[in-house]
Write a structure and sequence with these properties.
Elements: E1 2-5, E2 9-16, E3 31-36, H1 38-49, E4 54-61, H2 66-75, E5 79-85, E6 91-98, E7 103-108, E8 128-131, H3 137-149, E9 153-157, H4 166-171, E10 174-178, H5 179-186, H6 192-197, E11 203-207, E12 212-217, E13 220-225, H7 237-250, H8 255-270, H9 282-290, H10 297-306
Parallel strand pairs: 1-4, 1-8, 2-6, 4-5, 8-9, 9-10, 10-11
Antiparallel strand pairs: 2-3, 6-7, 11-12, 12-13
Helix pairs in contact: 1-7, 7-8, 8-9
Length: 312
């Protein structure tokens, strides 16, 4: 059973030919709102695409923006532990999605920053705690500390990127980052291999966009090349990957097949618009995987070399 503690935002999304440069005004096209926020996205992915029993601790304002977020989580089968904040608006995000499926995101955290250490529910019955960095760092660290004391596995998606304390790193069982976040957490601008060598977390997973992902678990490296899809919107892909990976690990999957499941779910999410609305079902992930050929040794070797592992 998984507890996700993190953010929930209502996303305001506009499609445009390209993402505006500083000082530039771009005439956009379609505008829609979607349920989002890294924590809520990952909770939906755990439940819907990963098939895991999932709870979520979140903070919401006492406003109209909260209702669609609660409906989306409930619809995915996520059991909520809601902190209601009367003097803050529900979190929002303003997203521009370009025609080449890239995005630029500005987040107004609002009620998300009201989550405190004392808000954590009982951890009895939970096996995994999934965290991100869109809530106060003090709360993230307190939740990780409580989970470690209770024998609950601690997984952190270190996004948005920021430096992490030695205490927090020591509390983690799994760290999930993209290439840019890895450089920030490792405080190093070298290759992925060199950055990983600077981190003592038992398991580190690095997502690499259209290249795929790599991971190190107790000194053993795994490489999963990306599935080839035509992207529409990459907004929720990373969160989908995180949620499905944790769901798979909680269900007893070894790391390599868990990476493959997560990669397939993330690839499918890229082909749809929105964050939670883009997250596939578990059946859709299974069908997609059944249609894909297994990756080859040559594919894995090319990915390892991209990461700087010339010795593998």
């Amino acid at each position: 059973m998984i507890l996700v503690a993190g953010s929930a935002n209502l996303d305001f999304v506009v499609r445009a030919p390209h993402i505006p440069a500083p000082g530039e005004t771009v005439l956009g096209r379609d505008f829609q709102t979607f349920s989002g926020g890294k924590g809520a996205n990952q909770a939906v992915a755990c439940a819907r695409a990963g098939g895991a029993t999932t709870h979520m601790l979140l903070a919401l304002g006492d406003d109209a923006y909260a209702a669609p977020l609660e409906a989306s989580l409930t619809g995915a089968g996520v059991q909520m532990h809601v902190v209601r904040v009367k003097d803050q608006a529900t979190g929002t995000a303003f997203i521009c999605v370009s025609d080449d499926a890239e995005n630029a995101i500005t987040v107004a955290p609002g009620a998300n920053f009201a989550l405190r250490a004392t808000d954590l529910p009982s951890l009895e019955g939970f096996t995994h705690l999934l965290l991100q960095l869109e809530i106060p760092m003090a709360s993230v660290t307190a939740y990780a500390r409580a989970a470690r004391a209770s024998g609950v596995k601690v997984i952190l998606n270190a996004a948005p990127a920021q430096a992490l304390s030695a205490e927090l790193l020591a509390l983690l069982d799994v760290l999930i980052v993209n290439e840019g976040e890895l450089a920030v957490v490792a405080d190093h601008q070298g290759s992925i291999a060199h950055c990983l060598a600077r981190l003592a977390v038992p398991c580190v997973v690095v997502t690499l966009g259209h290249h795929g992902c790599c991971a190190r678990l107790d000194g053993v490296y795994s490489f999963e090349p990306a599935f080839q899809v035509t992207p529409l919107d990459t907004t929720g892909a990373g969160d989908t990957f995180c949620g499905v990976l944790v769901a798979a690990l909680s269900q007893g999957h070894k790391l390599q097949p868990a990476l493959r499941l997560a990669s397939a779910a993330g690839a499918l999410a890229c082909t749809r618009l929105g964050a939670q609305s883009s997250i596939p079902t578990q059946a859709e992930v299974a069908a997609f995987l059944a249609s894909q050929a297994a990756s080859t040794e040559a594919d894995s070797a090319a990915l390892s070399q991209f990461c700087g592992f010339d010795f593998i």
